[in-house]
Structures are given as structure tokens and as C-alpha cells.
Amino acid sequence: MRNFIFIFLALILLPAYMSGQVIKGKVSDKNGVGIPGAIVVAVDSKTTADTDFDGNFTIKAKLGETLKITMLGFDALATKAIAGVMSVKLQESKDTELKEVVVIGYGTAKKRDLTGTTVRISGKEVADKPNTNPIASLQGKVAGLSVVNSGRIGQEPDIRIRGTISRGQTKPLYVIDGLLNDNIDFVNPNDIETIDVLKDPSSLAVFGVRGANGVIVVTTKQAKRGKFTVNFNSSIGVKNIVDKPKLADASLFKTLYDERLVNEGLPAFSYYDKYTGNTNWIDEISNSGATVQSSNISISNGTDTNKLQLNIGNIVEEGLIKNERLEKTTFNLNDEFNVNNNFKIGTQLNGYKAKLPSEGNFGSALIATPIVSPYNADGVYYQLPIQIGGAQIGNPLIPVNEEIKTKINDEYRFVGNAFAELKFLKDFTFRYAFMGDLDVKKGRGYIPLIDVYAAETNQVVPYAGRTLTNVNQYNSNEQKWQQDALLTYQKSFGLHNFTALVGRTVSYQKYENINGSVNGKINNPIPNDPRWWYLNVFPFGNSETRISNSEQWDRATTSNLARLLYNYDGKYIFNASFRRDGSSELAPVNRFQNFWSLGGAWEVTKEKFMENQKVFNYLKIKGSYGELGNQYTTLHYPYLPNYTEGASTVFGNQVVPAYVFSYRADPNLKWESVTSYEGGIEAATLNNRLKFEATYFNKLTKDLLVIVKDQNNEPFYTNAGSIENKGFEFSASWSDKITDDFKYSISGNLTTLNNKVKSVYTEGYSIYDGPSITRAGDPIGSFYGYVVEGVYQSYADILSSAPSTVGSYGPGDLKYKDVNGDGKITPDDRAIIGNPTPDFTYGFSLNSEYKKFNFGIDFQGVYGNEIYRNWGNGSTFAQFNYRQVREDRWTGAGTSNWEPRIYEGSDYNKLASTYNIEDGSYLRLRNIQLGYTFDTLQIKDFKIQNLKIYVNAQNLHTWKKNSGFAPDAGGSATQFNVDNGGYPLPLVTSVGLSLTF
């Protein structure tokens, strides 16, 4: 009887024992070192666990059940659950990049299953770099991605993917955790898990009218199942100016200025005895040793049902000009809850509070005369001599010391989404997400009264003639809302594999701004105290001077989308996308537009005839074609023009203005369209150590949205013109290890780009934008002016040369070329004198690991473009400081054949010409880092999982040929790489640590 009872109890308890057994084990690499973060899945029990820092795991599963163990960088492994402590070893994967899952917009896909060109960057690449904008750290990292950084704190880089495709906006679309956005300011680099750069039509067409400029997809961090971790990282850096422009000192300035006065027959300057300084104004206004500090903490907890992560960061960065300062606190909350195996919900919230910098500039420091000291003996600011620029620019220290400090600019931003995802009928997944973005900016400014010392008259006078204080105030509010409803079907039938997506997305954007200003009273100025910096500043403000303005607009889009990813046996791959966009900003006749793409790929190495070859480990041939859209324009509701004042008439004693349309609109306006195609190969060889990718791309933008002058010389808004961008992208990497202790990798990329304007409007029609021109047959934004052949050496030289009709000139002035050969110099002799778009851009990196040390170095550069120098040219009628090279000016026959004489009697030498053109090619040592990761045994007693310390140097040196601060400058679509004096790109040296508990 007793035996029967035991048998009976065993039969009852055995299923419970089999289903509830606690399985323990350790996952390690082939050397026995534990692998943290590996995912262990019990196939039948549907339970999961992650390995801890030492590679240990505990999971609830049945004995004999299959456990699947996966870890990025290692081949997946299936093994049976056994009693006791399991020991599992994973092998390093040789094709990790191909197996990784990338975000392609409204979903994910294996990189191996794509027909286009996407690039993934790990969040680690941007987390430990001293840049508040994460895309700034990608300069030189991605083929086809142009990033031009500015040294200004908080300023967005100039970003272009595969060239300038429009005369409107050039930057790409950002998608942050599913929300489509036009900037990435609210994302802390430390919160980023991955960045995916989408460039090809097969991945961009699904974004419709917002996809033509390329897309950058950012995924923020999520908690890992089965782990509770706390991570803290912090860094502090020091910024310094390098490559300062070389300017004349006081001695050289006096020499050159005296020479000018003699050349023009003017009396000598009689106040040198009152101006005895020798001031380098760049040094005076610079914040030497500006600091940048960053601290971040993240708390992560993951269970079988819930993954919660909270990140909080703080950034304090000083500018290169005194009193510039950015303070920014960010947070990121990411929570995902599995209600059951088929239904999950989640929420994400990003936000920040920032005190924005009051930006200064180096413009006045580049041109202010050096003979003036900053202060007189009584500590009063010197006024620049009226005869030497004083009427046009003030003492450069005044804005820096007095006006920057009287500006208050704050920004508050909250970006979030909530979603629900349901899996049903085994192969279907429905996801609904609601997303929002609220951005509030507000600020106040105060213009004080400042005394300056005018040495010519020995008087203290108001700075800039200002006798009234002033207060200005603004408040702007921008809202973005988005709803996505997406249905995904994923199924395999034998060798056929399908992933189909259909969806609907609706978005709404609204912007409001109101601003105003008020002057103080003559005898009752507004106090220099923030308590009084408001428009209704009773009793100080003069209400009769109060003015206000406002701006507001909104727009909505509704879109249907579909995508199919198909492969047969992993060998033959097909992608198709479709999107139909409707916009409130277009007239009903063209309110809806369709966009689409097709792509195909062939993984050659999966064919039987490739089985015995020893050359390629992987080879794929790919191509895609599609029609993309571009809705970016400087005008909202372009088919409904605003009014502007026209002629006026008199009614009684009143003059009454008439109002007319600001332009005439084409009734058939539609969004710009981009026909894009590409073809290329991906390959891996030498046991997957060498990987290579080559792609040819071509993008043709048609029906550009532009304002032109019609046959009546009236502004006309229409679709006109086309721009072509084509080129090659190459990227390669080599990774290997010399010993188990020493590993290294080398990677590089190169992009060629040929940009050409195919048409503008009517034949011969050109668009002028400063020194730049956009016309058919030339690159967009080309520099336009006269070709300098040298300097006239004598009157005989003038008589033997083609006569000029573009101004008065004499010996020592620039000699312009008769380009059209008509025997005289006229405006028709202007030609393309420079191309701001490089022939190619490139970047290369070296990374190595020796035991616990790691070292990385990055280079980046461009070749074949020009810069237009728009400073230091004597391009105004005022007398400013000289560039140092002017000491080599023409002073008589044979003394110079490039630097003209010192003469301001005419503007002949100030015309746009090749004299202003400088070589824009450069090579920059972009980043160098040395780090050390402590051995686990060294820190285990402190309950620390991981500790890394590092030193980093950014922009260490740039090999360049231009005379300004930096050899690259952003700008608009039709005027870029124009050097207006700019802002230095600083050398940043920093130290940091990353600590995980």
C-alpha cells in the first residue's frame, strides 16, 4: 500500500516537477570567459532569462527541453536542459553584421534580407564623445552621409545624405522611436541604443513626401530581461581654439592703412597718439579653456513581463566666447509590459529642460582694428575710431561682456508615445501607437545703456548712439501629433518567406509664436535687473513704443502605406513599398500623391555552384528603384499666398495702402518628386575578416517648388527645375586578432558625388544667392564671379589688356579675364569660379584592443571643393582690419601678381572673383581615444559589474589650406561653404568613466 502511495504521488508531482524545474547554467566564450547579456529561451515553456555579468543564468524549464541561447556577435546555440549546472560555450560569429536586425521604418528586418543600403551605428559610438548632438559624432563614419559640424554650442550640424537634392530644406528626416521629426535635439547621446541611416529608395519610399532627403532612425535603450542594473557615466572636457586666422597686428595695420591714405590722396590719420593698443580681438573675446561636462545615470530592470528603463542626464557646456553657456537636463523613460504572450503595451517619454546659450560670434573680432585697446585708463570701453570702422562695428568686447548676459532663453520639450501590440492568428501582429511632441521656447532680452570712450573728442558717449533701454520678449509653441496603425503578417511556406505590412498614419503639426519689444524712457530707463525685463514694465516702459508680432501655422497629413519583404531560400530577395500621402497644404487638385519602390537582391554565395569556392564567404548583388517625395518648402500653404502692401491712395486726409498678393501661385502646385535608383554589391572574404560594399546611386529631383520671376517680372510660385545627384559609395573593414589578447580592426569609406542642376525655369534662367548661383548645367550653389589673371603691373599693362567696363581701376588692381573673348571685361565675363560640393568625402578608423586596453583613432576629410572667403576682403566701404597676407600686396611693378594694392577708392577689387576662392580640401584627425576596462576580479568586491575609464581628444588637428577658422561651412541649399568668418571648431580634450552596478 505504501509503495502504491509513493507511485501515486510521483505520478502527480512529476508533471509539476518537469514543468517547474529551475535550470542553472553558465554561458561562456570558447576561452571560458562568461558572456553577460546572453538571452536564454526555453522553447516549450516560453520562459526567458538573461545571463548576468559572469555569464550565469537561472531559468524555469523542463528537463530535456530545448534552450535557445543567443548573443550578438556569437552564433546562436540550441541545447537540452539538464540537471545540475549547465556549461554552454558560444562561438564568435563571423557575419554578425549580416544577421543583425535593423530598423527600416515602421518595422525591422534582417540586414541580410534587404535590397538597399542601410548602415547601423551602435549607440556606443556616440555615447562617449563630447557632442550634445549625437549626429555630430558620425562625421566621416558613414558613406554618403555629409556632416558639417559647427563649434557653436547647441547648434545642429549641416547634414546631407547623398547630396543637395532641393532648393529648400536639405537635412534628413529623423525617426526617434517611431516618431517622425525634423530634429534630434531632445535625444541624449547616452540614451541611444542604435542609429540606422537609410539611404536607398527601397527603404525610403515608405516615408513618402518626407523620405527624399534620407532618414536617420534612432532607437533608444530598453531594459534587458532578467537584469537589474544601474549605470553611471560622466566626462569633463576642455575646449580650445585652433587654427586662428592670421590678422594684421597694430604695426602692420598702421603701415597698410597709411599706405591706403597715400594711395587715395587722403590726409594722414591724426589720432595714432590716442590709439596705442595692439589688441588681438579674437583672444580678447575668447573663453580660453571652456569646459563641457556631462553626467548620466540609468536604472534598468527587466523581468519576464516588464522592462523598465529610466535615464537622466545633465550637460553643462561653455562656448568659445566668454559668457556663452548651455545647461541641459534630459530624461528618458521606457517601459514595456507583456500582458501575456500575445499582447504587450508600452510607453516612452523623452524630454529636456534647457537654458539656451546667448550666442556671440567672431565677426567683429576678425575686422576690428588692433590699434584700439579694450578699455581706457578709467576702465571705460574704447570706441573704435569713427574713421576706422567705428560707425559700423563696436568694441567687440561689449556684446560679449554686456549684452550676452542680458538674454534669457529657456526651452522645455516633451516627446513621448504610447503603444499597444497584439499578436493573433499566429502570424499577424497589430500595433497602434500614439505619439506627441511639445516644444516650448521662451525668452527675454534687455538692451542696456553703455558708455564708451571716444578718444578723438576725449568724451564719453553712448555706445552705438543708444540713449534708450529696450526689452524684448518672445514665446513660441510647437506641437506635433502622430498616430500609427500597423498590421504585419509574417509567414514562411517551405522556402518562401514573407513579411507584409499595411498601415495608416496621421500627423498634425502646429506652430505659434508671439514676440514684442518696448523702449524705456529717456529720464527713467528700464533697470538692468531681470525682474523688469517684461513688455509690461510699468512704470519704466514707454507704452507708445510697444510693438508686437505673431506667426502661426498648422498642417496635417494622412497616409496609407504598404511594404512587402520576400525571399526565396534566403537567396532571391524582393522588397516593395508603397505610400499614398495626402496633405492639407496643397490645393485639392494635387492633395494626394503616390510614392513607391521596388528592390531585388541575389545572395550568390548560397548557390550550389559557389559551395566549393574559397574566395567569398558572402556575396550579394542588389539594386532598387523608386519614386520619393519632398514636401519641405519655406512657405506653408503655398497655393494660398499672403498679402503685402502695394500702391497707396489718398482718401480725405489719410494715405491708405492697397494690398496685393505677395506672389502669384500656380494652381497645380504639387510636392517635389525624386526618382532614385541604386545598384551595388556586398561581400565578405578571407574568413569574414574583410568586408566590402560598393554602391552606385542616382537621384533626380523634379518639379522643384520655387519662386521665380514670370514674363511680367512678377514673383511666381510654381513647380520648375530639376537637380541630379549621382555617385559611388565604398566602404570596407578588416578585423582580425594577432593573439587572444590583441585584436584590431580597420575600416574606411569613400563617397563620390556629382551634383548638377538640369534645369531651373525657362532656358537661361538663373538664381543668385550672394556669391552663389544656381543655373542649368552647373552644380547647385556654385560660386560665380570673375576670373583673376593677376594684377595690373603698369599703365602699359592696362593698355595692352582688354578694357574693363565694371569699374575704375589702375596699376596694382586685379586683372580680370576676358572669358567670352569679346575684347572687353563686362558682367558677361563672370563664370563659375568654384564648386562648394566636394568631388569625394572619406573617413577611416583604426580600433584595437590589448588585454584591458582599447585604442581608437578616426580620420575624416573631403577633397575637390572650394570655399568662398567672405571676410577680410575689404568688401564694404568701411575700413576694417587686414588679413596678414596683405603685407604681400602690390607696391610697384613686379612686387605681387596676386595681392592687389591697398586702395579703397573704388570697389573694383571687391567684386566676387577667384581672389575670394580658397581650397576646401582637408584631412582632419577627428577623434582619438584610449580607454581601460578593469578586470572583473579587480572590482567584484565593490559590487561593480563594469568599470571603464578613458581619455578622448576631438578635432586634434586639421590639415587644410583655407585662411579661416575651419575649412568647411554649412549653409542653405543654394549658398553653402561660404566662409563668413564663422565659428571655430574647437579641440576638445576630455576624460570620462563608465560605471555599472
TrEMBL record:
Residues 110-215 form the TonB-dependent receptor plug domain. InterPro entries: Beta-barrel_TonB_sf, CarboxyPept-like_regulatory, Plug_dom, Plug_dom_sf, TonB-dep_OMP_SusC/RagA, TonB-dep_OMP_SusC/RagA_CS, TonB-dep_rcpt-like. The keyword Glycoprotein does not apply. It is found in: Cell outer membrane. Its main location: membrane. It comes from the Bacteria. GO terms for cellular component: cell outer membrane. Coiled coil: none annotated. It holds the Pfam family CarbopepD_reg_2. Keywords: Cell outer membrane, Membrane, Receptor, Transmembrane, Transmembrane beta strand, Transport. It is a multi-pass membrane protein. NCBIfam families: OMP_RagA_SusC (TIGR04056), SusC_RagA_signa (TIGR04057). Belongs to the TonB-dependent receptor family. This is TonB-dependent receptor.
